[in-house]
Design brief:
The protein contains three helices and six strands; from the N terminus they run H-E-E-H-E-H-E-E-E. 32% of the residues lie in helices and 12% in strands. Helix 1 packs across helix 2. By secondary structure, it is α+β, with helices and mostly antiparallel strands. The longest helix has 52 residues. It has one domain. A four-stranded antiparallel sheet has the order 3-4-5-6. About 12% of the residues have low confidence. Bound molecules: zinc ion. Zinc ion binds next to loops.
Length: 206
């Protein structure tokens, strides 16, 4: 109220009301902002996998087979000419594309470190054209850790296991989704339990 001759000022109550309204608006906007940031990271991750896909195709064109690495009994990726990352990165030459933006905090001093795992069990050393269902064959997918996640001792990727916190299972970095690079070069987001075993073994007959 400004009944007196003094200059008009907000009363304490009015100020408190304004602050309360700002707080309510902020609490409504923040989740939306966080969602937008998560979405931006997922899009960035899609771009990474598309570039990795180009590297895979260039590798396959040059070598007539998909990258050939193997998993040995000492639990480490053993290169045939390099780790799968090294083999593919020779064609795209970027450290950044191997890092999922939703998985920060990793130190990247290891040349074979990546957040994306290769469907080694099915793809390695195969001619691209010998795979009958390229649109349904996983080449790379995102995972929440960099170690032996999602790959057993024979090199087979484990699908449908994202809810499991065991270090041998897939963990999905984008809420309930992970990004998948398919052999035809497209990238899509797949929900938890949406990855079927058949996607990792595309020679299957339905
Ligand atoms: Zn990602």
């Amino acid at each position: 109220m400004c009944a007196s001759r003094r200059p008009c000022r907000f009363t304490l109550i009015e100020l408190l009301v304004v602050i309360a309204i700002i707080a309510i608006l902020a609490s409504m906007l923040l989740p939306a902002l966080q969602q937008a940031r998560a979405k931006a990271r997922a899009i960035n991750c899609t771009g990474n996998l598309k570039q990795i896909g180009l590297g895979v195709i260039m590798y396959a064109d040059s070598n007539n087979v998909l990258p050939n690495t193997f998993w040995d009994s000492t639990n480490s990726w053993q290169p045939i000419g390099g780790s799968y990352k090294t083999l593919v990165n020779a064609y795209i030459n970027s450290q950044k594309v191997w890092e999922c933006p939703s998985r920060p905090g990793t130190t990247w001093n290891d040349v074979s470190s990546t957040h994306y795992i290769y469907n080694y069990g099915y793809c390695r050393n195969k001619a691209q054209e010998s795979i009958t269902k390229p649109t349904e064959t996983v080449v790379f997918c995102g995972s929440y850790t960099t170690s032996v996640v999602g790959i057993d001792s024979s090199g087979q990727v484990w699908p449908n296991a994202s809810a499991d916190n065991s270090s041998t299972r897939l963990k999905f970095p984008h809420n309930d989704y992970t990004n998948v690079l398919w052999l035809d070069g497209h990238v899509s987001a797949v929900k938890v339990n949406g990855l079927k075993a058949s996607y990792f073994n595309s020679g299957w007959t339905p």
